[in-house]
């Protein structure tokens, strides 16, 4: 007596798991809407799901074709974002150089560049703040006194700085658009981490 009841339950549960046949079309239309809004990375994720789960459907096959176009668009977006990051950091570095030329040292905060050197506090293309750290690159200066004798003096001027973009994820490390970009004293660095600053730093 229990077997018909079990079979009925299995059939009932199987019926509950059946998907709406309109789902591929809905997913495809949603992906198209995302591309129209410029949200290409989200659209690609949806297209990949559609192509994987419904490879034999017309919408799944269209998704496979559209993925090639999306990959091209995303590559262009990455290149443009990278260009914007580099040009933005170059603009900040130039402003810092002008500030140092007028004040004898780099500012303590980037906000000091506004409005004389920059129109607004700089930020990344993703609207994240840059990490900026001024420091004394040469804490001890070798000099001579009035009698010409060698002497050493302590410098407290910010003669060096780190300017870092932590990427789209705002986390250290990463690749592609999440990769960190370092500028030290106006020069872009290829290292994955900045070199350590001289220690101890003098108290200002």
Give the SSE layout.
Layout: H1 2-17, H2 23-36, H3 40-53, H4 58-103, E1 131-135, E2 140-144, E3 150-154, E4 160-165, E5 181-184, E6 187-189
Antiparallel strand pairs: 1-4, 2-3, 4-5, 5-6
Helical content band: 40-55%
Rg, Å, rounded: 29 Å
User: Which range does the strand content fall in?
Assistant: 5-15%
Major beta sheet summary = 4 strands, antiparallel
Structural class category: alpha+beta
Number of strands: 6
Whole-number average pLDDT? 86
Main sheet strand line-up: 1-4-5-6
Number of helices: 4
**Run of helices and strands:** HHHHEEEEEE
Q: How far do the termini sit from each other?
A: 88 Å
Characterize the overall form.
Answer: elongated
Stretches where pLDDT is under 50 for at least 5 consecutive residues are: 1-17
